Amino acid sequence: MIRVLVWNEYEHEKKEEAVRAIYPAGIHNAIADFLRAEDVTVRTATLDDPECGLTWEVLRETDVLLWWGHHRHGDVPDEVAQRVQEAVLQGMGAIFLHSAHKAKPFMRLMGTSCDLVWREIGERERLWVTAPNHPITQGIHGFVDIPHEEMYGEYFHIPQPDEQIFIGWYQGGEVFRSGCCYNRGYGRVFYFQPGHETFPIYHQPEIQTILKNAVRWAAPASRIDALGCIHRETPLEQI
Ligand code: ZN
Questions:
Q1: Tens-place pLDDT, residues 192-229
Q2: Are the beta carbons of 98 and 195 closer than 8 angstroms?
Q3: 80 CA distance to ligand 1 centroid (A)?
Q4: Confidence (pLDDT) at 124
Q5: Comparing C-alpha atoms, which of 98, 110, 124 is closest to residue 192?
Q6: Which residues surround ligand 1, an ion (CB under 5 A)?
Q7: Could you say which DSSP state residue 212 is in?
Q8: pTM for the model
């Protein structure tokens, strides 16, 4: 069983009717609902839970964490962000969605500003597959059209991805590295750009396929309990 935790800031849905109309139970529950499968268990956590719902106990029982955040990145305590980073280095998979490009754990894992160019006029995005043989792009044929999305454009200040699997093109002319895969320690990290809160993007079947694939890709084959240097005093061979 793959144990998934969907984390959401859960702010827009409570405060904005337009967002609540699309995600009445919150973005986290919308994502959790389509991820549940025979071999996938899903829990959710939000910013206002004690310790953001991200204690070590929870993280040790999580194979893949999905993260949606926007307005309140700064309210995630540094120790929680560090804990998530360490869990990834130990093997936990992490999927950062849309405006989570500025989430503290993502920025720690990248080590760069993760700044980008943006515009919010609801233009069309065409999400192009650039790695048709990648596990995350299976079932997606060529491209996905997203009728309305917030534009995220280059330059995106990230480290060069280990695998670039999607490029987004926008009606206004920009392009963006919309699907980026990284290895960090024992863990796998996927950044996926689609998912602005005022458009029903997580209801779109192709987007759900991509996230289901991403959960399976990010699930760890093995995991270590702790990080630290090992002092091997005795050589393996006689010197
Ligand atoms: Zn947005």
A1: 999 999 999 999 999 999 999 999 999 999 999 877 89
A2: yes
A3: 23
A4: 98
A5: 98
A6: 99, 150, 196
A7: H
A8: 0.97
